[in-house]
Each structure stands twice: as structure tokens, then as C-alpha cells.
Specification:
The complex is a heterodimer of chains A (about 150) and B (about 500).
Chain A: E1 2-6, H1 16-24, H2 31-38, E2 46-51, E3 54-59, H3 67-71, E4 77-79, E5 86-88, H4 98-102, E6 109-110, E7 117-118, H5 130-133, E8 140-144
Antiparallel strand pairs in A: 1-8, 2-3, 4-5, 6-7
Chain B: E1 12-16, H1 26-30, E2 36-39, E3 44-47, H2 57-61, E4 67-71, H3 84-96, E5 101-102, E6 117-119, E7 140-142, E8 151-154, E9 157-160, E10 168-170, E11 174-176, H4 186-199, E12 203-204, E13 221-225, H5 234-239, E14 242-246, E15 257-259, H6 266-272, E16 280-282, H7 292-305, E17 312-317, H8 322-331, E18 336-340, E19 349-350, H9 351-356, H10 361-374, E20 382-386, H11 392-401, E21 405-408, H12 410-416, H13 438-441, H14 446-471, H15 476-479, E22 486-488, H16 493-499, E23 502-503
Parallel strand pairs in B: 11-21, 12-13, 13-14, 14-17, 17-18, 18-20, 20-21, 22-23
Antiparallel strand pairs in B: 1-4, 2-3, 5-19, 6-22, 7-10, 8-9, 15-16
The chains are: A alpha+beta (about 150), B alpha/beta (about 500).
Chain lengths: ~150, ~500
């Protein structure tokens, strides 16, 4: 499957990936409106981890043996048959946070108002995830597993 | 040192459009000068313009284009003599003392002679050539050419018997000027080397030594020997494609160099072969070169060291008696002469030197080419024009004036992202080019920078071919030193005479 590859040596910690992730998952998909009206209600599926000058943008790795799917008691966490991405159906999520507990890379976060889990969905509506498109330094690359 | 606020108004003013700003903080994280600050209590980004250098990093990365930067609107009382920059310099010096420093090339409003020369085109009496349909040759060989060429016939076929001196082969008559690892970041050095290899031209190590990772590009690297002799050993000389002896630099003729100890980290210390954390001081002169004869000794010492297998370049700044100096350098054994005009860039130079010392490359190039021709030694050395080459038309004009090829430094940095804020000497380059701070150097992805440099050279190559085609020329060799293809615009008789060109209309 196609995954987002992280080149941490090129990550400059600007957090534009987080910003565009939020916009992409907003209702309006317009940056100014999204930040004005929905900033508090959306948790980006990507998060920049920083320590000193080292930084990288972490998002769900869409593991082959995803423990979050195993751990999900309501079946909200599932694998999309088409893209093989691990997706959280927020309508079914009850916020038990088992997925948050078992995620080996801490890529699942407590979502809006601490009700449901929030994670990367590889931008199902976009051809290339917006974090990759908007990374100014090509620290994020979207490519097939085979390339790795 | 922070200047006291009461005498120094900011140079620029940051205007933040409150309707567009989303307080995302990208600008805060991108500014190495701490201009922007996020106030957590009020959840607002504030900007203090005092330290803004107008490098545009924040404005370029702002996702909503909320930031604009303008010259500070508080203007001094108009005065043609005591201009704003003169007053600012005086206030600065009165406050902190010392020599005014700056970076990049001369930014003063002095005449650009490239813009006062116009190229020719064919009409009716000779055909122009379409470079997209017919072959065009930009291939250039740099190095000493023989006095004459002998042939013999073997089985009816002619074969050259003259032994040629070593040459550098350039696919495009443009090379990257000397920029040391230390003055620019590791990523910038890698990008220049990679681009030179991909395009088939040469990058130059400057006086920074050759980083071990760059040895794989050594076929496309010219290694420099300057007055500090940093990073020089037999291996270094033999690894590069050619060796350049740097006598002077256009931005600061007669002045040495100084890489502050804070920038000399483990990698730079290993590459320059100096202790970590020590200042890298390049003396103003080479202490073993006080005459043309001394230069000859060094040239031949290096030729011996590399077994006469590589051309030796000598780089001099364009100064008043440049043609006599150039003649001496060629007679001393230089295979290639690089002349750096007064608009050449630098990582750091005293402002007064940068703005007031040296002469324009246009005059220096024409004078040197004419002098070497008159003395019958023009073929003994190739000429490289450097210092303020901005576009492909400048390249074409330089070649028509007599250059074999040109060096570009500033144009290459701009292709990598440089916005000419002229603060290279502070080590706080927000574009990750002229800095060694790992937080900043990461900002230059060498793969992106390489791609952009390659694009730049390829587009210049296309444009040079278009210009040549218009002139009815299909090989850059036919343009070289062909001053009939240049006409002067608004130049005095004396200037036309020195440039060796006719006036427009003649």
C-alpha cells in the first residue's frame, strides 16, 4: 500500500502539515474559516514531535497487524478494503481509548471534546494526503511500500 | 550586540493582516531573529519589526499570506547627501564601534554595464537559427590551448600529434563560484556539487576543504587553495578536477577571510583541518606570494603535486591594473584566469570595502581579454568572468566580451532560496544556506536545492541557445570574444573604447 514516509532530517518543524490536516478535515475546507470556527473541534491526525533541533511529523503508520483494530471493542476501528488504510468510524467510537493505549507509535489522539478517537485517514478525499502536498521541504513523501 | 532603541529605527515594518492571520505560529517557528512571538494568554501573534531583516521566510511560509514586509515608513528628512543608509551606519557605529559588516554583493546604485550593452540579431543578410530544430553547441573546454596544432596522416586519415594540456569540459559555459563549506551549510555544498555533476559543469570548494562526503562528486569539483591553506593536502589536490589558487575576491579585494570559531564544528574542523572551535583566519595575502615569480612557484608546486594532470586556475579580484596583473598571472603559468568583479558576493565583508573597492567585471573582462590578445597569450589561459552575473543574457554578453565561461554565486544561492537579506555574516540564515545552526540548516533539503539549480542552468542553456540562434551562431565558440555582436547604449567614447565595442547605431 501507499504510505507516508517521514524524512526526519528534512523536517523543519513548521507544522504546516498539522495546519493543512486540520483544514482538510474541516467542514468548509477553507483555511481561515476552518481556523476561526473549527479550530477547537478538530484534532489533526498528524503531530510534529520535537526535541531540540530534531523534529518529525508523526501520523498513523497504518500497520499491517494494527493492534488498534484488535483492541477496538465496538469495531469502530477498521481497515478500508480499498486503500488498506486504518480508519476510525467516529460514529461508532465510544471513546474507551483502548486504541490510544495499544498504538505502538502514539499516533492516535483523543479527538474533539474528548469524545472519540482521532487519527490519520490518509486523506481519503484527496489523491495525495494534504500534509505531503503542503510540506515545504519534502520531509513527508507519499510512496508505495515497495519503494522503501 | 543589541543596539539601543532610541537611535535606531527598524529598517522594515511587518504588517499582519488580522483578517487573514490564523495564529498558527508558522512565522514564530521560522524566524531565527525572534521577530514573531505567540502570546499564549491572548492567543495572538505579535511582531517586533526591530530585528526584521526582510528575508521573507515568514511571509513565504505563511499559509494565508497574512504577512507583508515593507520598508519602515518613518523616513528621514530627505537629503541627497546624508541618505538614510549613511545615517543608519553612523548611528550604528557611534553606538557599538567597530567595522560595519555586511554579506552578499555590492548593492549600491552604480551603473550596470551589462544593461548598457545590447546583443545583435540576424536580419535578411544572414539567417537566424532555430535552436529547437537545429543543433546548437554550448560545449566549452577550459584550460591552456596549444600555440599551434600539428597533424600527421596515418593511412590517409589525419591524426593530431600535438599533446593537449589538461582541460575541463563544460556542458554549459556556467560554473558555480567558490563558496566554502563553513560559509555555506553542508546541505548547500552538497546541492551545488550534485547539480554540477548532473549538468556537467563544476562547483568550487572555496577555502573550506573538501568534505569527505563530497569526494564522490570530486570529478565535478574545483578545489581551492587560498591564503589560509585550509583543508589542503596532497590527497585534496589530487582528488579535485582542477585546483584554483585564490588571490582575491571581488567583494573584498585585498581582504582576507574570517570564519568565526562558533561555526567550526566537528565536521568543519575535520574538513578544514583545524581544531574545533577555533577561528579560521585567512590572511589578506598569501604569505608566500609577494610577486608574480612567487605565484609561478606555487602554480608549479601544485602542478608537480598533481603530476601536470589538472588545469590550475588563478582567481583575482578586478582592480585598477587588472590587465597587467592578469598578464603576469598567465605568464606565471595559470591555465585559467578567474576575474571576480566588484559586484561579487561574500559571506562577510566590511561594508566600506564591498561598496567601494574594485571595478566592474565588464571593464575588467574587456581590458584583460584585449591585453592578452595584444600580447599574443590569450590562448594560454581561459578567462572566467565572475561577480554579478544575473541572467543568461549577462552570460552571452560576457562571452561576447571575451570570457570562456562565467561563474555564478549569488544567482545559484537565489535559486536555492536566498532572498538577499545580506545577513550571511550573522549565521542566522533563515533559508538554511549561510548558517551552521542545525535547526536552520535542515531547512535546505539538498534534493530540492539540486533540482532547482539544475533547472536554473538548463533554462539558461536554452536561453543562451535562443540568443545565439538569433545572432545566426550555432556554437558558443563563434560568440566567444566576438565583440561585433555587442553595441553600447548610453556609454561615453572612453567607456566604449575600453569595452572594445561600437555604440548602438554604428
Amino acid at each position: 500500500m501507499k504510505r507516508i514516509k517521514i524524512n526526519e532530517q528534512h523536517c523543519i518543524g513548521c507544522r504546516l502539515c498539522e495546519i493543512h490536516c486540520l483544514v482538510q478535515h474541516s467542514k468548509s475546507k477553507k483555511i481561515i474559516k476552518a481556523f476561526r470556527e473549527e479550530r477547537e473541534s478538530i484534532v489533526p491526525g498528524i503531530h510534529v514531535e520535537e526535541s531540540g533541533y530534531v523534529s518529525f511529523a508523526l501520523q498513523c503508520r497504518h500497520c499491517e497487524d494494527a493492534p488498534c483494530i484488535e483492541a477496538c471493542m465496538t469495531g469502530a476501528m477498521y481497515r478500508d478494503p480499498e486503500t488498506e488504510a486504518v480508519i476510525c468510524d467516529q460514529d461508532r467510537c465510544v471513546g474507551c481509548w483502548m486504541c490510544v493505549m495499544v498504538c505502538p507509535v502514539a499516533a492516535i489522539r483523543r479527538g474533539p471534546e474528548d469524545q472519540v478517537a482521532s487519527k490519520c485517514d490518509l486523506c481519503m478525499e484527496a489523491e495525495i494526503p494534504v500534509c505531503v502536498v503542503n510540506c515545504p521541504n519534502e520531509a513527508l513523501v507519499y510512496e508505495d511500500d515497495a519503494v522503501r | 550586540m543589541q543596539l539601543r532603541k532610541w537611535l535606531v529605527e527598524p529598517e522594515f515594518r511587518i504588517e499582519r493582516d488580522p483578517e487573514k492571520c490564523i495564529q498558527c505560529g508558522v512565522c514564530v517557528r521560522q524566524c531565527a531573529n525572534d521577530v514573531h512571538e505567540y502570546d499564549e494568554e491572548e492567543e495572538v501573534v505579535y511582531s517586533d519589526s526591530t530585528n526584521c531583516v526582510s528575508c521573507h521566510r515568514c511571509a513565504t511560509l505563511c499559509p494565508t499570506d497574512a504577512i507583508s514586509i515593507r520598508p519602515f515608513p518613518l523616513e528621514f528628512r530627505p537629503n541627497a547627501v546624508w541618505t538614510a543608509s549613511t545615517l543608519r551606519n553612523l548611528y550604528k557605529q557611534a553606538d557599538i564601534g567597530g567595522v560595519l559588516l555586511t554579506g552578499m554583493g555590492n548593492d549600491q546604485d552604480q551603473p550596470m554595464y551589462w544593461d548598457r550593452m545590447l546583443l545583435n540579431a540576424s536580419q535578411v543578410t544572414n539567417p537566424s537559427i532555430d535552436p529547437l530544430r537545429e543543433p546548437m553547441e554550448l560545449l566549452t573546454y577550459i584550460g591552456r590551448k596549444p600555440d599551434s596544432v600539428q597533424f600527421e596522416r596515418i593511412a590517409g586519415q589525419p591524426r593530431m600529434t600535438t599533446q593537449l594540456e589538461p582541460q575541463l569540459q563544460l556542458q554549459v559555459p556556467v560554473m558555480f563560484a567558490a563558496m566554502s563549506y563553513g560559509s555555506i551549510s553542508y546541505n548547500a555544498s552538497v546541492a551545488l556539487a550534485q547539480a554540477a555533476q548532473q549538468v556537467g559543469t563544476f562547483a568550487n570548494t572555496g577555502e573550506g576543504g573538501l568534505h569527505k562526503d563530497l569526494r564522490e562528486y570530486a570529478d565535478h569539483m574545483i578545489v581551492q587553495v587560498a591564503s589560509g591553506r585550509f583543508g589542503v593536502d596532497s590527497d585534496y589536490l589530487n582528488t579535485g578536477a582542477a585546483v584554483e589558487i585564490k588571490i582575491g575576491q571581488g567583494a573584498k579585494p585585498g581582504i582576507g577571510g574570517h570564519l568565526p570559531g562558533e561555526k567550526v564544528d566537528a565536521a568543519i574542523s575535520a574538513t578544514r583541518m583545524i581544531p574545533e572551535g577555533t577561528d579560521a583566519l585567512s590572511p589578506a595575502p598569501h604569505h608566500d606570494i609577494y610577486s608574480i615569480e612567487d605565484l609561478r612557484q606555487l602554480i608549479y608546486a601544485i602542478k608537480e603535486a598533481v603530476c601536470y594532470s589538472k588545469p590550475i586556475l588563478v582567481k583575482i579580484a578586478a582592480v585598477h591594473n587588472v590587465s597587467a596583473i592578469a598578464s603576469g598571472c598567465v605568464r606565471a603559468g595559470a591555465d585559467v584566469l578567474v576575474i571576480d568583479g566588484y559586484r561579487g558576493g561574500t559571506g562577510a565583508a566590511p561594508t566600506m570595502v564591498r561598496n567601494n573597492v574594485g571595478i566592474p567585471i565588464e571593464f575588467a573582462l574587456a581590458a584583460v581579454d584585449s591585453r592578452l590578445r595584444e600580447e599574443g597569450i590569450r590562448h594560454q589561459a581561459s578567462l572566467i568572468a565572475s561577480g554579478g552575473i544575473r541572467c543568461s543574457a549577462d552570460v552571452a554578453k560576457a562571452i561576447a566580451l571575451g570570457a570562456d565561461a562565467v561563474n555564478i554565486g549569488t544567482a545559484a544561492l537565489v535559486a536555492m532560496g536566498c532572498h538577499l537579506c545580506q545577513k550571511c555574516y550573522t549565521g542566522k540564515c533563515n533559508w538554511g544556506i549561510a548558517t551552521q545552526d542545525p535547526y536552520l540548516t535542515k531547512r535546505l533539503n539538498p534534493n530540492i536545492a539540486t533540482r532547482r539549480l539544475v533547472s536554473l542552468l538548463e533554462s539558461w542553456a536554452l536561453e543562451i541557445k535562443e540568443l545565439m540562434g538569433g545572432m545566426g551562431i550555432n556554437a558558443v565558440e563563434s560568440l566567444r570574444g566576438n565583440r561585433e555582436h555587442l553595441r553600447g547604449l548610453g556609454l561615453t567614447n572612453r567607456e566604449l573604447q575600453i569595452l572594445g565595442i561600437k555604440a548602438a547605431g554604428e
